[in-house]
Amino acid sequence: MRKNTLPIVLTFILVLSLGFIISSKKKEVEEPNDVLPSFTLKSTQGQEISLDDYGDKKIILNFFTSWCPYCREETKELHTLIEKRDDVDVIMINLTPWEQSLKDIDAFEKELGVTLPILLDKDGLFIQMFQIQGTPFNVFLNGDKEVKFIIPGGMDLEGLELYLNQIES
pTM of the entire structure? Predict the structure, then answer.
């Protein structure tokens, strides 16, 4: 009987240790007004794109998954927004660890006619940084790359504009 419990106890200790290590990592962005550290991610087209590539416009970081129905609706709203406003850029970031396959992201891009670059967060950097628990998830930045709003959940065009209009250029 004791031989059977040793692997269970060791597994339990390992799981607790890993949980402690993961939870003890400090988020880089604690709250609004923190400057978002620069990052570089690959796009679905293989290009490396950096936050530094964007000028001093307002930015919406849109975190999504291809299987999320709310993300699909919000993607349409984001395209309408960038056609309507020239004072904002949208960076779509796929939370790749939550995907079944990269093919699903390609299908999402084609089905919705996405014209924005889609960046791949393969390591889950932003899941940890913003403690993301679901999609869609949006982070609004001002021209200085300061986090102004962190909004979990889907947004329509009116909601997106409401937050953008509260950010000073």
Answer: 0.80
In Å, what is the CA distance from 69 to each residue of 20, 27, 154?
Answer: 33, 28, 10
Give how far Cα 81 sits from Cα of 11, 85, 90, Å.
Answer: 49, 6, 9
pLDDT digits (tens, 9 = 90+) for 100-159: 999 999 999 999 999 999 999 999 999 999 999 999 999 999 999 999 999 999 999 999
Token pair, residue 7, equals 């692997």
Contacts (Cβ under 8 Å, ≥6 apart) of 150: 29, 32, 130, 137, 138, 139, 140
Give Dmax over CA atoms of the chain in angstroms.
69
Task: Please say whether the beta carbons of 57 and 143 come within 8 A.
Answer: yes
**Closest Cα partner for 81 from 69, 90, 93?**
90
